[in-house]
User: Which sequence fits this backbone?
């Protein structure tokens, strides 16, 4: 797989909407994966303090040196996450992405996956793309994308701090 806008489109991702102009009602409600993508010529500039909400009384901000270590030069894809159905079957892409964006606007999250995105200056220019997938394929597909990214770049995308694995530990 190519981790470019074109490569994601070939893989079935859609949307590619800048965070600042994201219309959540246009995001499908089904389960799937989503990716945060840097625009062309994006230069990483790190904020001293994250715009993200506090999680369990923990500040999501990290020192600039840590952020610089996580940054993947030349990578367009900055984060790949999944949006499952939730325990009550009422989650999915629309709700997960909305919560992700709300988190970046300082609202308290239910989790803080992808939190490094919110310590980038001009995070609103980053785009979100999504791919609908059945729940049963989410974990293995996410793990496959993470593994392929690591194979290509030698590390996970910038804001993925934990590599996804299938339940069998693959």
Assistant:
């Amino acid at each position: 797989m190519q981790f470019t806008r074109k490569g994601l489109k070939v893989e079935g991702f859609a949307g590619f909407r800048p965070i600042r102009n994201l219309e959540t009602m246009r995001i499908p409600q089904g389960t799937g994966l989503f990716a945060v993508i840097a625009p062309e010529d994006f230069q990483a500039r790190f904020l001293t303090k994250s715009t993200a909400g506090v999680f369990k009384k923990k500040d999501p901000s990290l020192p600039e040196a840590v952020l610089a270590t996580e940054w993947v030069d030349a990578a367009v894809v900055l984060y790949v996450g999944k949006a499952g159905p939730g325990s009550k079957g009422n989650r999915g892409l629309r709700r997960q992405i909305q919560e992700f964006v709300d988190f970046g606007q300082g609202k308290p999250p239910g989790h803080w996956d992808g939190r490094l995105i919110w310590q980038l200056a001009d995070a609103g220019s980053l785009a979100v793309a999504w791919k609908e997938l059945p729940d049963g394929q989410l974990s293995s597909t996410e793990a496959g994308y993470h593994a392929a990214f690591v194979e290509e770049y030698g590390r996970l995308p910038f804001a993925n701090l934990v590599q996804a694995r299938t339940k069998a530990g693959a």
In short: The first strand starts at residue 14 and ends at 18.
